[in-house]
Amino acid sequence: MIRSKSTTVAAMALALSFGAGSVSANDRLVHDGEFMVDGMIFGLPEARVYTEDYSGPPVVGDYLTAVPHLAELDYDGNRTHEVRMDVISQQIEIAPGKFYNAWTFGGSVPGPTLHVREGDRVVFTMKNRSDEPVVITEPVAGGSPFFGQIRANPIQNNQPAVSAMPHSMDFHSGTVAADDKWRTIPPGVTIEFEWVANYPGVYMYHCGTPSVLMHTAQGQYGAVVVSPKNGFPTDDQVDREYVLVQSEFYLTEDEYNEGYRYDHEAAMARNPSHVTFNGHINTLHDQPLRANAGERVRLYVLNAGPSDTSSFHVIGAIFDRVWYEGNVENEWRGMQTVLLGASNGAVMDFIVPEEGSYKLVDHEFADAERGAAGTLIAGPRQQ
Predict the structure, then answer these.
(1) For 20, which DSSP code?
(2) Pick from 170, 162, 54, 50: which is nearest to 103 by CA?
(3) Fewest C-beta atoms under 10 Å: which of 117, 192, 236, 310?
(4) d(CA 324, CA 37)
(5) 349-360, pLDDT tens digit by residue?
(6) CA torsion angle for 299, 114, 246, 376 (degrees, to 10)?
(7) Whole-structure pTM value
């Protein structure tokens, strides 16, 4: 049985009104039918599919950012996040002069990064607006920090486009019935569902509509960072933190229009035209990551694929701590390279040894030469 929306909102407001230390286990259950196992919440309500007259910002939520940024969790305990990421089409550039009509969540490739804490609840809304042009590069009221960060780094030269297609959303960070929550919706339709961040990690989200290979390679993916409820052991030592998403593009010249288009034959053959960090071969060179000698830098790295592995390496550094998949229980130390399969993620800490320039690469050098490289510039040690 599903409660009415008004009852749901009231229950959520009640849950949020408690301080983190005063919320009992049962207070975290919001809907009839929900249950707990080992402190985790399952049995969430059925997704709602409806039409709405919505033309506002396609990304809404205080903890949604553009890569490489990660929103600070400025609250104690757990909370409920109201998150919107609409599907829109955008013409984007992934290398100088190489642009195509991408299918996106929110207008960029990769899409916005969502940061939550283990145990948080997400109420997610997505309207399929692939049949209307949506501008994301103008100031917007009621949107997320994502838009200001896109305007500050316009390297993809995002332009509105129209490419009406059915789409869906598959959060790897959610534990739900996929045939319900991840269902495909047509253009003009909205879906709303909930999930609870039961496990910490660095997770992928992507469109799950067939061909999943095509929808993902067209640009529909991004990262969710679920920080552990008690944090990582080195949290109080971290000076900088960044999000990196590696992905492949399979583009060929468009025979009928200016620019490039998706090449499904190349995708099936695993022969990418470009492999990038954060969606452009130059983004981490034109705007390198910054740090100072002696600082501890934390990277949240996701390999979105859709098909190939990543052997992530920082030239001149060793990863002091690695938490595979972003789970604090999966700790490695002294790693030179971290192997990530498609959709794997990790949290990687390293200490910047001295002032200088450090290259970030996929050590599978065919991918590095296709663009999977970036730079971290380290200044002098600060006293």
Answers:
(1) G
(2) 162
(3) 236
(4) 24
(5) 999 999 999 999
(6) -30
(7) 0.93
